[in-house]
Design goal:
alpha/beta
Length: 263
């Protein structure tokens, strides 16, 4: 069977580790050329080599800070110079820090706004001229299950990632006439560096072990385990492909059934 992303080029932000890395690797294994970005150039170099070695794909990289408009412009321009065009974009970034309402300053709110919401706005805005000219493209935003069921310690994420989800839904209608699709993936408890960090914060706050924190979450997940990054990566690769050509404006949880809401 032919790889579902053969001859396509996919840009993946926040891809030196975690979910971004998993999406980049899944895309490469499905035949795509991949261009990855993050703030850490050393990690990017290592990650691009590992993905290329495992997949045999053409993998490029560029330093990317999604809070800086100039960095976004340079990253997209470099991808175009290297590959000539692109077919997909994955909007992804590390989440804002944990905190409750009375612990967060104006600077905390502004930083989260720039990272989570404006980072998505600027990345999408930068790729649209190329996609609109080609009359095709697929965009994925990576947010969180917190947009459906808010998480107590993650107020900044709850607020701004909900904004990204609304942005994706609005754009799915605006961009359909250009044959550009946009969908949103909601990670649940996926076994990544960020989730491990959040688990450690919960453990410290409650005075229990990290294993006890994980066990308590696993009890809330019908599949009784944390997800693997590659399980989310496989969904992303599908949504980026032409096999998902009639899917746009959707918000899909990858959470092992943890969410209780039906909407």
């Amino acid at each position: 069977m032919q790889p579902i992303l053969k001859d396509k080029t996919i840009l993946v932000a926040g891809a030196s580790q975690g979910l971004g890395y998993a999406i980049a690797q899944a895309s490469a294994l499905e035949g795509a050329n991949v261009f990855i970005g993050s703030r850490d150039e050393d990690k990017l170099k290592t990650s691009s080599m590992l993905i290329a070695k495992k997949s045999g794909a053409n993998v490029g990289y560029g330093v990317l800070d999604v809070t800086q408009p100039k960095s976004i412009k340079t990253w997209v321009k470099t991808a175009l110079e290297q590959f000539g065009s692109f077919d997909g974009l994955v909007v992804n970034a590390g989440g804002p820090p944990a905190g409750m309402f009375n612990t967060l300053s104006d600077d905390d709110w502004q930083a989260a706004f720039e990272l989570s919401l404006m980072g998505a706005v600027r990345l999408i805005r930068e790729v649209l001229p190329t996609m609109q000219k080609a009359s095709k493209g697929s965009i994925i935003t990576i947010t969180s299950v917190s947009v459906k069921e808010p998480i107590d310690m993650l107020l900044l994420s709850n607020v701004f990632r909900s904004g990204v989800t609304s942005l994706a839904k609005s754009l799915s209608r605006n961009l359909a006439s250009y044959n550009i699709r946009i969908n949103n993936i909601l990670p649940g408890r996926i076994d990544t560096e960020r989730v491990n960090h959040l688990d450690s914060l919960i453990a410290e706050d409650k005075g229990i072990s990290i294993s006890e924190v994980r066990s308590s979450f696993q009890e809330q997940i019908p599949l009784s385990r944390y997800g693997k990054p590659e399980e989310l990566g496989n969904l992303a690769a599908f949504l980026l492909s032409d096999r998902a050509s009639f899917i746009t404006g959707t918000t899909i949880p990858v959470d092992g059934g943890m969410l209780k809401t039906t909407w």
